[in-house]
Each structure stands twice: as structure tokens, then as C-alpha cells.
Design goal:
Blueprint (H helix, E strand, L loop, with lengths): L14 E11 L5 E5 L11 E3 L19 E4 L2 H7 L9 E13 L3 E14 L10 E9 L2 E7 L9 E3 H8 L4 E4 L6 E2 L10 H28 L9
Parallel strand pairs: 6-10
Antiparallel strand pairs: 1-2, 1-5, 1-8, 3-6, 4-6, 5-6, 7-8, 7-9, 10-11
The structure holds zinc ion (2 copies).
């Protein structure tokens, strides 16, 4: 007699939670995520299929391997992972578990995933994030992003939260967590931008302009065409 685990046939795909770093492709046209542990070397898109991280030729997940996407059932369990120093800049993802999955006590290991919502934490200065900016590390072809307020962007490569959602496509929502009064969403009615999104974009542009003008002013003070104080 062969022992088989019971098969589940849910009417709706299950929901799970995980943490991951937001990533922007080198050319700035694609948004994705990269995991914080196993599989962290391979950025994935909003809708993605798992492959074996060890390069083995089986479908993920396999019972004899620990590959496949991973998530937990409980949002607070995933949030707890954000407390460690190395995960502070990661985002909390709410995902839909698609395809074959293996259920564990605390979560799922599975074949296909759709990221529905990414909740980003505050800027390092404590202000609610308005953008995702170059975090100073990455993977080949991908820059890791970290939450930033408009004031802390300076000259870094960045995208607004709504911009990241647009690049991610597939109905991704990106939300500023912790004290945020505004949820920035991806594609919506009309051009996909409502008043909150446009206000956030305007704040970012203003911050960029302020930074740019400060740089110009500095050059003006010290540059050849500036004060004319060269000896
Ligand atoms: Zn495998
Ligand atoms: Zn800041």
C-alpha cells in the first residue's frame, strides 16, 4: 500500500505572507523582488514560476528538495522577520499561492506566485516612505531598493511607490506602511493615477528639484563661472 498525503482542492487559491527586497532592473523598466534567504540570488516578477534553486531537473516544489516559493500563513509571523537588522528595508508581501503546493504547519512551499500587495516600511529617518531608492547593493542586472522619503532621496536612482507598482504590473499594489495615510496603488481608472498618487509624484519631483538646485548652487559657489574668486 502506498501512503499518500491528502490532496487539497481549494475553491480559491490560498493567501500567504513573506518578506522580500524590492528590485529594479538595470534599465529601470522592470520591477521585481528577491527573497531574503533560499533563492535570494534569483529576482522574481510579480507573477512568477518557481524553478529549482539547485538547478535540479524537477518541478518545484519537490518533496525531496526544499526549492519552490515559500510563504507563511500568518501575517504577523512574516512581519516579525522584518525586525532583524538585515531585513529592515525589506517589504512585506501578500501573495496568492498558485499551482501545486505543499502545506506545512506554518506555511506553504509552492510552484507559482502572484504578489498582490507589497507594504514598505518607513525611510531610515523614520518618515513614511514616498519612494523606493537604490539601496546600494543588488544582483546582476538588478538594483535592490529601500524605502525613502522625498527628503532623503538626494541623487539616488528611485521610483515612486506608484511607479514601482506600474512597473511590476499584474495589478500589484504598493503601500506605505506604518503611519501612512495614503495607499498608493498601481493601474487604476483613467491613467492609473489619482490625486494621492499625483501628489506623491509632485512631492518627489519637488525634492529632486530642491536637490538639483542645491547642487547647482554649490557648483556656482566653487565653479569657474561662479564667484570669480579663482587666483
Ligand atoms: Zn529542487
Ligand atoms: Zn527620510
Amino acid at each position: 500500500m502506498r501512503l499518500r498525503l491528502p490532496e487539497e482542492r481549494p475553491t480559491e487559491p490560498p493567501t500567504g505572507y513573506k518578506i522580500a527586497h524590492p528590485m529594479l532592473s538595470q534599465d529601470g523598466t522592470r520591477a521585481g523582488f528577491t527573497g531574503v534567504s533560499l533563492g535570494g540570488a534569483l529576482p522574481y516578477g510579480v507573477l512568477a514560476d518557481a524553478s529549482c534553486v539547485y538547478g535540479l531537473r524537477h518541478r518545484a516544489p519537490s518533496r525531496r528538495c526544499d526549492c519552490g516559493f515559500h510563504c507563511v500563513h500568518d501575517r504577523t509571523v512574516a512581519e516579525a522577520l522584518l525586525c532583524t537588522a538585515e531585513h529592515r528595508a525589506a517589504a512585506l508581501l501578500e501573495v496568492t499561492v498558485l499551482g501545486r503546493y505543499i502545506r506545512f504547519e506554518r506555511g506553504f512551499r509552492y510552484a507559482r506566485q502572484r504578489v498582490r500587495t507589497a507594504t514598505v516600511g518607513p525611510c531610515v529617518c523614520g518618515t513614511v516612505a514616498a519612494a523606493l531608492a537604490d539601496a546600494g547593493w543588488g544582483r546582476p542586472g538588478w538594483r535592490a531598493l529601500a524605502p525613502s522619503c522625498a527628503g532623503c532621496l538626494r541623487g539616488r536612482t528611485s521610483v515612486s511607490l506608484a511607479g514601482f507598482a506600474r512597473l511590476g504590473a499584474q495589478g500589484l499594489r504598493v503601500v506605505a506602511g506604518k503611519g501612512a495615510s495614503v495607499a498608493l496603488t498601481g493601474p487604476g481608472p483613467a491613467d492609473g493615477l489619482g490625486v494621492p498618487e499625483l501628489a506623491a509624484e509632485a512631492a518627489l519631483l519637488q525634492a529632486r528639484l530642491d536637490w538639483f538646485q542645491a547642487q547647482l548652487a554649490r557648483l556656482g559657489e566653487h565653479g569657474p563661472g561662479g564667484g570669480g574668486r579663482q587666483g
